């Protein structure tokens, strides 16, 4: 397609009016979801062949979707492959990244039998996903599938670096015409193709990323290889039967999907129940008072005040910063941004970072605060004490006062008060925004902010015209605001969801402690905490500082016992658990915990070569024995025994889960939750 044609296509797309819908939130480890409210007409069938020209395969009772595959989509694998897998994905989604090794394994093990086809579905709360999709599309236009997959791999390898400068650098690395890449990004030249992919995703019910259609059969989320294998093997058998019956291999996909669905079925009752839950009221106004000086951008008499509750270690808070900057640029002095802290308990460096930022504000006002704010978000993975001091020095703070403030936690009361406000208003996650009192949650795109800001500006201007001074508009707007979460009822006639069953806080589960398990603390400790965990689970990683705090504060009174619970959709969790058990078998608890720490520090690198490298780093491990243990799955039965112990006790858990003298505490809870449970157990043990 020429550049001129591309521009014309964009104009047509805008004239036609493509509506992209509403964020529905995440879906756990299976993927992140988005829904749209548009439909598209069915288009061509297999590449170069109208579906209507191909006879339908005999009915087999399997639900399939007719997903068009044409030369307009990036592909790998032969066009006459027996199995075609259409993947809806996006470059900023962590679950899409996690499934890549599985996709690579499929292409290796089914070489020549499987074709992969890419379709775009950049989610609106992933700010860099759409530009990344545009770059990949431009690579496809310039160099076909070969260049597309080269860019695809670079984007996923550098998923946390998808800013404009990064995209241009990747374009240069793979040999694209960078001038044309810049023009494509500037003019959003591939908007129509991306939007059409999203519309088709909506129509066929591909609401999450990643989402796969295997010869038209839907498989959602970052599933393990075994899940794909089950469907692929079945489809190869069916496809081969068609070929044996005279259907050309190149027409197998079109034949199998000829009578497939072109639209997803209505939501099932379980989904309807989920949607029937009370939702936050988008029009509710909350009384978020600004009592005293706070870091802010914009004048005190701005017509719209946005209070932002944020966390310096939260990746979503980082992603929304360009949107906040765009708001300031667009609305100027009509908008004021006020910062409040809500460091989440599982972000180990967020608390000290908040202290550092408030000390900068205390010493030199908002300018110093925002300078420190920018430094910390630019270096979000390096919020060490040493770096905090380095940045404080760069912006000219009094270093003796700065160090004393961090040492003595001088701003702790302020931070805890702001966290209390957030909790009271139901803003437990970050980032969370109150726009003249109206709550908008998460790293939303600019358009979502703009819709609320424009409404509030109109109301504010009406107040000013009615005689309210600009400086009193915010106080007037929120004076009767709510001080607790406000929700709206589910639609009339919707079936209310069943209440989620919570673990019985008083139930004591009988889970025997193995005689020989990795542990910390004395065997005769009054409290035994059995931790069921998974080396690939991000929440298991987040709770580590809390576990360390428990061992520090309770000393010999508590024993931590490690139990394995690798989740099936974490592909490397099982091998990592077996590797850690072999280290324990050779070197006891001391070597185990050293290896445990290395695995969690390198949670995104748990391939076989990585596991061996970490074992060598620990030292004193017989590597021949280590490799043999992994090759022979020596410890598989022990890992499975840990998981069976939970089932036998009648518990249903995720990871991490902790049994504290038999009582269950689930999830990456903050230290006070553990403290309450441990103190109770200690009291009962007296």
Proportion of residues in extended strands:
5-15%
What's the story with the biggest beta sheet?
5 strands, mixed
**Total DSSP E strands:** 20
Classify the oligomer.
single chain
User: Gap between N and C termini, in Å?
Assistant: 78 Å
Spatial strand order of the main sheet:
3-5-4-7-8
| Computed Rg | 28 Å
CATH superfamily of the largest domain: Glutaredoxin
Helix content: 40-55%
CATH arch. level architecture of the largest domain: 3-Layer(aba) Sandwich
What is the CATH class name of the largest domain? Alpha Beta
- The number of domains: 3
* Fold-level CATH name of the largest domain: Glutaredoxin
Mean pLDDT: 86
Explain the overall architecture:
By secondary structure, the protein is of the alpha+beta class. It has 3 domains: 3-257, Glutaredoxin, CATH 3.40.30.10; 296-478, 3-Layer(aba) Sandwich (Glutaredoxin); 519-685, Glutaredoxin, CATH 3.40.30.10. It is 47% helix and 12% strand. The protein contains 24 helices and 20 strands. The chain has a 5-stranded mixed sheet with strand order 3-5-4-7-8. The protein has a 5-stranded mixed sheet with strand order 10-12-11-13-14. β1 and β2 form a beta hairpin. α4 (129-157) crosses α5 and α12 crosses α13 (385-394). The termini are far apart. The relative contact order is 0.08. The model is unreliable at 1-52 and 269-274 (pLDDT under 50).
